[in-house]
Design a protein that fits this description.
The protein has 2 domains: about 1-205, HUPs (Rossmann fold), CATH 3.40.50; about 210-275, no CATH class. Helices cover about 35% and strands about 10% of the residues. It contains 9 helices and 10 strands. Strand 4 (about 125-130) and strand 5 (about 135-140) form a beta hairpin. The radius of gyration is 18 Å and the shape is globular.
């Protein structure tokens, strides 16, 4: 498992470099396996403490087990978590489940726009009170200048174009053609004022690496990733109207590792169960150029 420790060490180095370089730093936590591994790495990097804010975007359409898992870990690990939400779109039913918009527009409103407005502090942030377990309006509206995200280059095509330190525009828009070179482990962390930067500590990890590391470290993950006796489990998690499970009888990380090593999903994209990825032709790249994870 030396290769896992090398990946771990590199990710920890990037997390520490980000913490040193950016004053107002946040980490996206989608509750999925990748961002939970990233959270685990952050706790390792800072000796059990996460010194920056965790950010979750709540679309109100997450599978209930995901929210239960989020709240349980927040209380157990005493995490500094805020969440953002597009209350206007939800109130006006500008969502795909309501039938008012298509999937891509729904994602743009509930995820991209909510993320952008939560990052820049222009919309309400809700912060967990780890004494009571309740979420309260957060008074801090300081914009985040750096955001750590659990992007992996092998997950889908547009993410293979990313950098470890990826500059964004003032509105979090992503210009693929203007990404800085990163050669010989030399990273640019000095950007002009007003630049928003995404940091990607998991860029070199694969789906197999993630599950091997979860198995090695015994990291707690959402039960939805495992077969509950119906011969199905989720490989990638999103909103329930747009996410489908895959056929699999894997009930543990070790069994998932075996599936991946045997090539069970070799010709099936990891996010094939995420309907918005195939909607509208290049839908995910459209979303990511606008600021989506």
């Amino acid at each position: 498992m030396d290769y896992l420790r090398k990946l771990e060490q590199h990710s920890i180095y990037l997390l520490r470099e980000a913490y040193y370089s950016f004053k107002d730093l946040g980490m996206l936590w989608s509750i999925g396996k990748d961002s939970t591994v990233m959270l685990w790495l952050a706790r390792k990097a800072f000796f059990g403490h996460v010194p920056f804010t965790l950010i979750h975007i709540d679309t109100s359409y997450k599978i209930p087990e995901m929210i239960d898992y989020r709240d349980r870990l927040v209380m157990e690990w005493k995490l500094n978590l805020i969440f953002g939400r597009n209350d206007t779109a939800l109130r006006d039913q500008q969502t795909f489940p309501a039938g008012a918009v298509d999937r891509i527009t729904c994602c743009s409103l509930l995820k991209t726009e909510a993320l952008r407005r939560t990052i820049d502090g222009s919309w309400t942030r809700y912060r967990v009170n780890t004494d009571t377990g309740e979420y309260e309006k957060h008074s801090n509206t300081t914009p985040f200048t750096g955001i750590i995200a659990g992007v992996r280059s092998d997950e889908e095509g547009t993410r293979s174009k990313e950098r470890y330190f990826s500059p964004r525009g003032l509105s979090s828009e992503w210009d693929v053609a203007q990404q800085p070179p990163e050669l010989w482990n030399q990273y640019n962390t000095s950007f002009p004022p007003g630049t928003h930067v995404r940091i990607h500590p998991l860029l070199d990890w694969t789906e197999l690496n993630i599950w091997e590391y979860i198995q090695l470290e015994n990291i707690p993950t959402v039960s939805l990733y495992y077969d509950q006796g119906e011969g199905k489990r989720y490989r990638s998690l999103g909103c329930y109207p747009c996410t489908d499970p895959v056929e699999s009888t894997a009930k543990t990380p070790a069994e998932i590792v075996s599936e991946l090593r045997e090539g069970k999903f070799a010709n099936i994209a990891e996010r094939s169960g995420r309907a918005q990825d195939s909607a509208g032709g290049g839908g995910l790249e459209v979303l990511r150029r606008g600021g989506y994870m």
